[in-house]
Specification:
Largest interface: A-B, 49 and 39 residues
Number of helices of chain A: 9
Strand content of chain A: under 5%
Oligomer: heterodimer
Largest sheet of chain B: none
Shape of chain B: elongated
Helix content of chain B: over 70%
Radius of gyration of chain B: 43 Å
Structural class of chain B: mainly alpha
Order of helices and strands of chain A: HHHHHHHHH
Number of strands of chain B: 0
Number of helices of chain B: 9
CATH class of the largest domain in chain A: Mainly Alpha
Number of domains of chain A: 2
Distance between the termini of chain B: 100 Å
Helix content of chain A: over 70%
CATH topology of the largest domain in chain A: Arc Repressor Mutant, subunit A
Number of domains of chain B: 2
Order of helices and strands of chain B: HHHHHHHHH
CATH superfamily of the largest domain in chain A: Winged helix-like DNA-binding domain superfamily/Winged helix DNA-binding domain
Largest sheet of chain A: none
Radius of gyration of chain A: 20 Å
Distance between the termini of chain A: 71 Å
Number of strands of chain A: 0
Chain lengths: 202, 151
């Protein structure tokens, strides 16, 4: 059997018949989507492989109940999203401090690397390497549902239909979550930079 | 609708060409919208610049682990239990109803039957009826004259 040319449904059928290579091929096809979602939502690179393995193991356990009439992609993405929300609720993955848990000098140091002048990170002053720390702290502050919606739409580039399928909600609800997450990120980051600017002036 | 409220549609590229033009002109004068867009662009860019480092043999490792585990007893149990806890709740309900149906004495019906029996026994009309049936038609007037006492 030529695995590379096979449809997902065929790979699933062969997996259920005990073909290990078929399942490996299925994992290969969707590993990037699952890896990206898990890594960007949980933000924990050292444990990312375990998390991705767990997602695919959950899929394997439930594979006999998967209806091959539907595409495999949204299904595995939903398992990954549920896994992330589960982990975020259990707070097992919060290795990174919240903004409010940082000291004033830590906050100032992080913001100074984002934008020395205290502006909103326009191209001239913007350093993406340093900005990642601030962005990760801010992403951590979003609630599990808003965070997963934001990651799927903004960071992974899925359509609202795909976001809704992964979250198990309507498309309208998915849009609302993404919009609120955007507004929270914008409002918080602007506030932090404003505070930093006024402290510098003072 | 205020132009500021088009922000999400602009971000999602869902505005018509004309609306897009209007929103971009609006951003020149609206500090809120332009700063919000700059913040969001930089935020997303910062989180997506890093390349995903996926280990090369990950699919094979996952497949091997899955197939090793598929023979274990806990896998067999979870593979049957995991899909639908609702099925188990439904099966439990079905079991409870079948027990109630198979043994009606367990439920309200049994208590009601006891109540009916007691009422029948305590009704004087029923006692006299049975006594009257025991007598022939000829004996009836005598029996009534004697005050209906049972023999």
């Amino acid at each position: 059997m030529r695995m590379l040319d096979s449809a997902d449904a065929t790979l699933i059928e062969f997996t259920l018949k005990g073909d290990e290579q078929a399942f490996a091929e299925l994992v290969r096809r969707y590993q990037a989507a699952v890896w990206g979602t898990v890594y960007r939502t949980l933000g924990n690179s050292s444990e990312n492989e375990d998390a991705v393995q767990e997602v695919f193991m959950r899929a394997y356990v439930s594979l006999r109940n998967f209806n091959c009439k539907y595409p495999f992609g949204p299904w595995i993405l939903r398992i990954a999203t549920n896994y992330c929300i589960d982990q975020l609720r259990r707070k097992r993955v919060r290795k990174c401090k919240l903004w409010t848990e940082l000291t004033e000098s830590e906050q100032a140091r992080m913001l100074a690397t984002v934008s020395p002048g205290g502006d909103y990170g326009h191209a001239a002053a913007y350093n993406p390497d340093h900005f990642e720390d601030v962005a990760r702290v801010l992403l951590n502050e979003l609630g599990p549902k808003h965070r997963t919606a934001f990651v799927l739409r903004e960071l992974e580039g899925h359509s609202y239909g795909e976001v809704a399928a992964a979250l198990g909600t309507s498309e309208v609800a998915a849009r609302v979550r993404v919009s609120r997450a955007r507004a929270e990120v914008q409002q918080k980051l602007r506030k932090y930079l404003d505070d930093y600017r006024s402290r510098r002036r003072g | 609708m205020r132009t500021c409220e088009w922000f999400d549609k602009y971000r999602d590229d869902e505005l018509s060409a004309e609306e897009r033009d209007r929103f971009e002109k609006h951003m020149i004068t609206c500090k809120d919208c332009s700063e919000n867009l700059a913040v969001l662009n930089n935020f997303v860019h910062a989180l997506t610049t890093q390349e995903l480092q996926i280990p090369a043999a990950l699919p094979e490792r996952i497949a091997r682990r899955a197939f090793q585990k598929s023979g274990s007893w806990d896998f067999l149990v979870t593979s049957w239990i995991r899909p639908a806890p609702a099925w188990y709740a439904f099966a439990l309900l079905l079991l409870v109803f079948s027990i109630l149906w198979a043994f009606p004495g367990i439920g309200r019906t049994g208590t009601y039957s006891d109540y009916e029996t007691l009422m029948m026994e305590s009704n004087p009309a029923n006692t006299s009826e049975s006594a009257a049936q025991a007598l022939s038609d000829d004996d009836m007037p005598n029996w009534l004259r004697e005050g209906g006492s049972s023999q």
